[in-house]
Amino acid sequence: MNLEEQVLEMIVPSAEVVASLQDKADRLEAIVIRYAAEHGIDVEVRMAGSFSKGTFLSNPDFDVFMMFPDTVPHDELERIGLKIGEDVLHGVRMFSDHPYTRGEFEGIEVDLVPCYRLESTAKLQSAVDRTPFHTQYILSHLADEQKNEVRLLKKFMKGIGAYGAEQDARGFSGYLCEILVVYYGTFRGVLEGSQKWKDNATLIIESKGPSMVSPLVVYDPVDSRRNVASAVHEDTMALFIAAAKAYLANPDMRFFFPKERSPMSKRELASKAENHGSRLLTVIFEKPNVLDDVLYSQLWKTQYALGRKLN
């Protein structure tokens, strides 16, 4: 058994776990459908996210999309969608680009998201209308045997600290990992392919859209106007390329399961600073009352600005 087979034995959910999760997903979907029918709401309910695509690692969230007709006004879609979330999940309203409800169902974290039911992505009406198309694309283009290749890539990304498109991570999203496996075929294929990436590397999955400037450009196969890799920062991309090269040269379990680091004690830190002839300055401030994504974005900008000044 090679290393990657050993990793898969550790990260692929058992058939029992998958069946249990599917039962919960089916029950939740049925509850939302029944609620909509009882209240005369015309909505199609569809699961999205890594669970629905069979590429999750463990403890997946459920992303439930409520697809409204495109004739429903946007404020009505939000109002009705949030009301369903409140009554079904008794959750918290999340306000980002597009409001949705986050709650819990039988121990599983759930995002209940209203969106529009569209024929194509040509005329999007909300920030999340692409997501059902993403799910459908992966289901139709990712072979069953490739799902474990995605799992390996996700676990590798998590292990090296390059996973997640949020502002605090600025890395590779789950959907991007899936698209990369569709493009390159296998986990190792992605690692080998990354060795050819340079700044503004461009991958055309289905069709090329407008020219974009970004460390990595991956044209969304369901909407070529969008770069799936827009969140990937040049530092994260460089980290992945270097880690991929190191792994291909010498595969090791630590890429997937890194050893936990213990922070230095004050005495050790002071000793190191003294040995280097350096001083440490710490600035502590109250966290402002803003969304985490906004805060992280501001912190990154501040870090770079300070770096330029101090250099």
CA gyration radius, whole angstroms: 22 Å
Task: Indicate the low-confidence ranges by residue numbers.
Answer: none
Summing up helix and strand content along with how strands pair, one would put the structural category as alpha/beta
Backbone shape: globular
Mean pLDDT: 93
Q: Report the β-strand fraction as a percent range.
A: 5-15%
Distance N to C terminus: 50 Å
Compressed to H and E, one letter per element, the order equals: HHEHEHEEEHHHHEEEHHH
* Overall strand count: 8
The DSSP helix count reads 11
Strand order of the largest sheet: 1-2-5-4-3
| Biggest sheet overview | 5 strands, mixed
The helical percent reads 40-55%
Query: Looking at the chains present, what oligomeric state does this protein adopt?
Result: single chain
Please describe what this structure looks like.
The chain is α/β, with parallel strands linked by helices and 311 residues long. The chain has helices at residues 3-11, 15-38, 49-53, 74-89, 131-141, 147-160, 174-184, 187-194, 234-249, 266-276, 292-310, and strands at residues 44-48, 62-69, 92-94, 100-105, 108-117, 201-204, 216-220, 223-227. It has a 5-stranded mixed β-sheet with strand order 1-2-5-4-3, sandwiched between helices. It has a 3-stranded mixed β-sheet with strand order 6-7-8, with no helix packed on it. A hairpin with a 2-residue loop joins strand 7 (216-220) and strand 8 (223-227). The chain is globular, with a radius of gyration of 22 Å. The model has no long low-confidence stretch (mean pLDDT 93).
